[in-house]
Design brief:
- 40% of the residues lie in helices and 17% in strands.
- The chain is an alpha/beta fold.
- The protein has one domain: pyruvate-formate lyase- activating enzyme, CATH 3.80.30.20.
- The strands form two sheets. Strands 1-4-5-6-7-8-9-10 form an eight-stranded mixed beta sheet. Strands 2-3 form a two-stranded antiparallel sheet.
- Strand 5, helix 3 and strand 6 form a beta-alpha-beta unit.
- The mean pLDDT is 95.
């Protein structure tokens, strides 16, 4: 029986992947907006290799592993190159049909690993990492204790390109609050342009109990933009984003205006759709608050 430390998290696109919880929690775990890894039992640690292999053996025997594996938790790239290669090689030895292996990563771990290590990890099966950019505004990034600035995020993204590993970047509408709403959106679009990731996922900030930002909001020190302000941020974000050949999504359930687009060809169409909604001021064109309320329960 495989024992997971709950709750654990994965990107929506990894719904069909086997989740290998090789680490517990997040090694950074200082971001003020995040309540994901705050429980005592989620304190960061690395599972011993024999335990990881036992999980793989159990999953293999139970036919739980098909062609996709997501290595959890919050930033498995913190593991050494040697350990990651051992894990991926064992996965593929036991399950030769594996086609892709992915994980969360943060900017610091990418910079630490460097191009050479990442090229080796690519050779052993790692084809994409998910990175929480959140914002391109250095003032916001410092405020939320992200642990990386605009320039470092660009450097990490260029390293991934050199290594041949795809980049799925996540950004957060509303992260600048009402006071830096448009500055945050513009700087984040410019960051995406400089990083040129293969995938962009725009989510809307939800401030949950347990996150330091929740306490700031309770004290009146942070104000979340309203729904049309968030849609305006989406417009400014899209307007400032140029991708060579990438996908842009805002279809996460947290968003008021879901979008699926391929850049650059769909950019003008998307801008026109957003502006139509903004000009109308019609809330019926937005996703109901019900959906945001549902995920706030979890």
């Amino acid at each position: 029986m495989i024992e997971y430390v709950n709750p654990f998290f994965r990107p929506p696109s990894e719904a069909k992947s086997f989740i290998l919880q090789a680490t517990i929690g997040c090694s950074h775990n200082n971001c003020t907006y995040c309540a994901m890894y705050r429980k005592e039992e989620q304190k960061f640690r690395v599972r011993p290799m024999d335990e990881i292999k036992e999980i793989i053996d159990t999953a293999t025997q139970s036919d739980l592993i098909d062609d996709r594996v997501f290595i959890a938790d919050g930033n498995a790239l913190v593991l050494s190159k040697k350990k990651l290669i051992e894990i991926m090689d064992y996965l593929k030895e036991k399950n030769p049909g594996i086609e892709r292996i992915r994980m969360y990563a943060n900017v610091g771990d990418i910079l630490r690993q460097g191009t050479s290590n990442l090229k080796e990890l690519k050779e052993h099966g790692l084809d994409m990492v998910y990175i929480g950019f959140e914002s391109g505004d250095d003032i916001v990034l410092e405020r939320i204790k992200k642990g990386a600035n605009h320039e470092q995020t660009v450097s990490a993204s260029l390293i991934l390109k050199e290594a041949g590993i795809m980049n799925s970047a996540m950004v957060l509408l509303g992260m600048g609050g009402t006071d830096r709403s448009l500055e945050h959106a513009e700087a984040t679009g410019k960051l995406l342009t400089s990083c040129d990731p293969e995938y962009v996922g725009a989510l809307s900030l939800q401030v949950r109990p347990g996150a330091p930002l929740y306490e700031e909001m309770e004290r009146g020190e942070f104000e979340l933009p309203n729904k049309f302000q968030l849609v305006k941020e989406l417009e400014v974000l899209v307007q400032n984003t140029e991708l060579t050949d990438g996908y842009f999504f805002s279809n996460h359930i947290s968003n008021y205006l879901p979008i699926k687009a391929k850049f650059p060809e769909d950019k003008e169409r998307v801008l026109a759709e957003i502006r139509t909604v903004l000009e109308s001021g019609d809330e019926s064109l937005l996703r109901p608050d019900y959906y945001r309320d549902v995920i706030n329960q979890y």
